[in-house]
Specification:
Radius of gyration: 23 Å
Order of helices and strands: EEEHEHHEEHHHHHHH
Number of strands: 6
Strand content: 5-15%
Number of helices: 10
Distance between the termini: 50 Å
Structural class: mainly alpha
Helix content: 40-55%
Length: 273
């Protein structure tokens, strides 16, 4: 079985999709896929489907959805399969589990690449870090579970994945900046700060990339626009380290020209206290 959750939900057995068209069975499959080989308790599944307002027939309806998923599994596995669908979508005391190896789900590969990329970044192996993190991000094909109506449990998981994706992207950009690739990532940074207009780390990266590309005025304008937005929306000033980065640009601090070296720090932390 191959399952993808980093984008539209996809689950195939022998090249045949087992993803149901109905919304609630899709939610069940998605939640079980995020925990391969682990029991997802019945109360967790029911909260995902109905929140806190559980119908009286909730347990019976959940069992019906499980039966529907098993039927799709069995059809895809074929009559000659040595495994029965109930051995893949397994009933355990108090819950259900999807008995598949972790590497059958794309999240497993993603997390492994991110961890390896993070380690390479911390070790100062910037080219390796950039490559690994880029591979991890390339596994995404849109927002996580973009075609699944998420309940409270999946909503938490999707938020975690999206936050992880943003952190991985920020770290990969840091690695590219340390490699002197500021010109190559300017277009990406312009797009991403428009999507995250109050994210100081991403704005610091855009400022440094523009500054190193010889566009000091544009770098200072990124700071100015962020400051106006933070004041208007939240009533706060940019963080001290971002203010120090701004002052360093005004003073043409030579530390801004450092591309790679022994510091091994993130762009946002260049002027941390």
């Amino acid at each position: 079985m191959k399952i993808k959750v980093l984008g539209a939900l996809s689950a195939e057995v022998n090249g045949v999709s087992i993803v149901p068209t109905a919304g609630k069975p899709r939610q069940i499959l998605a939640l079980l896929a995020l925990y391969p080989g682990r029991v997802v308790p019945v109360p967790t599944l029911m909260e995902e489907l109905w929140g806190t307002e559980l119908p009286q027939s909730g347990l019976t309806t959940l069992q019906t959805y499980i039966h529907q998923l098993r039927r799709r599994l069995g059809t895809a596995m074929g009559p000659g399969s040595p495994e029965a669908a109930k051995d893949v979508l397994v009933t355990r005391y108090g819950g259900y589990l999807l008995q598949v190896p972790a590497d059958a789900v794309d999240v497993h590969a993603y997390k492994g690449l991110v961890e390896a990329g993070r380690q390479a970044f911390d070790d100062g192996e910037d080219a390796q870090a950039s490559m690994l993190l880029r591979e991890a991000l390339d596994l995404w094909d849109g927002s996580a579970l973009v075609d699944v109506r998420v309940g409270p449990m999946l909503d938490i998981e999707v938020m975690r994945l999206e936050e992880s994706r943003l952190v991985a992207r920020e770290r990969r950009i840091d690695a590219d900046l340390r490699l002197g690739r500021h010109a190559e990532i300017l277009a990406e940074l312009t797009d991403i700060i428009a999507r995250y207009p109050e994210h100081e780390g991403l704005h610091s990266q855009a400022m440094v990339a523009l500054y190193r590309a010889g566009r000091q005025a544009a770098a200072l304008d990124v700071y100015r626009r962020l400051r106006i937005r933070l004041n208007a929306d939240l009533g706060v000033e940019p963080s001290p380290q971002l203010q120090r980065l701004h002052q360093a640009m005004l003073a043409v601090d030579p530390r801004l020209d450092v591309i790679a070296g022994p510091q091994r720090i993130a762009t946002f932390d260049l002027y941390a206290a």
